[in-house]
Amino acid sequence: MPYVNLDSVRLHYRQHGSGPAVVFLHGFSLDHRQWAPQVPFFAPLYRVILPDARGHGLSEASKTGYSRNHRVQDLSQLVDILKIEKFHLVGLSMGGATAIGYALKHQERLKSLTLVSTSAAGYSVGKKFSRLDDLAKSEGVDAALKKWMDWGLAWYKDDLREIGETLKQMMTEYSGAVWADPMRGKYPRSDDLQNVHAINVPTQILAGELDRMFVPLAKMLHKQIADSRLTLYENTGHMINLEAPKRFNADLGKFLREVEG
After folding, report:
1. 182-197: buried (b, 16+ CB within 10 Å) or exposed (e) per residue?
2. CATH number of domain containing 44
3. Per-residue pLDDT of the chain (261 residues; tens, 9 = 90+)
């Protein structure tokens, strides 16, 4: 299993195929396995890179360094070490926030940007995360992780149960390091929403219509990023690459072909 040693953390990643590079960034408390339905579709034509963010999957869980800026720095070092000069960047949820941060600092390195059910630095998601911080302080990291799993998996029942089991496995193995970070809540705050208008690489934004927390952000980003395209998936929630993998693969594949075209 390949690892890279960055300045402050040992990062795990998976790599498949060859051709133009596409880097996929996973969501919070998940890991590279989130993109399993995409690997066989894209690897025959692209060099697919799947990093585990620090503290996630098989990457090292450092004691600190869990800000958006740290994730951007980690990505920047990773692509340099892998000698990737220009690449397509795909990020879901937390991975989307990282992707936005990277685009604002290094968009000359990007061929395209795909934001999936994305979050963004400066976008308020209510008090849920602060309640998890409080729970971690009062009852410990395991209690915060359990509550997070209760919230995150509530949607994935009945017909979506298989997806829920996939997510549960990743979340169960998550280190919870973000809640143990002594700098949690003390990092300088970034507000990328004030700057996203500066992004000028080909950008597409994908979101599930039932993902009420992040659809407003998707629409906001679409308005602010010139010439971006927005697609909303009907009857779909947050994990659209898992809930609608065939459509997601087709949409992303078409977009990448157009950019490469």
Report:
1. eebeeeeebebbebbe
2. 3.40.50.1820
3. 799 999 989 999 999 999 999 999 999 999 999 999 999 999 999 999 999 999 999 999 999 999 999 999 999 999 999 999 999 999 999 999 999 999 999 999 999 999 999 999 999 887 778 899 999 999 999 999 999 999 999 999 999 999 999 999 999 999 999 999 999 989 998 899 999 999 999 999 999 999 999 999 999 999 999 999 999 999 999 999 999 999 999 999 999 999 999
Distance, in Å, from the CA atom of 225 to the CA atom of 202, rounded to the nearest integer, reads 9
**DSSP secondary-structure letter at 35?**
G
Partners of 50 in beta bridges = 14
- Count the domains in the chain: 1
122: three-class secondary structure by DSSP = coil
Please indicate, yes or no, if residue 23 is contained in any of the structural domains: yes
The β-bridge partners of 205 are: 115, 230
pTM of the predicted model as reported, rounded to 2 decimal places = 0.97
DSSP structural state of residue 10? E
Per the domain annotation, does 84 fall within a domain? yes
Can you spell out the DSSP letters for 207-224?
A: EETT-TTTHHHHHHHHHH
| 145 to 26, 60, 135, 177, 208: CA distances (angstroms) | 17, 18, 9, 10, 25
| 3-5 sheet: strands from edge to edge | 3-5, 10-16, 47-51, 21-25, 87-92, 110-116, 203-208, 229-233
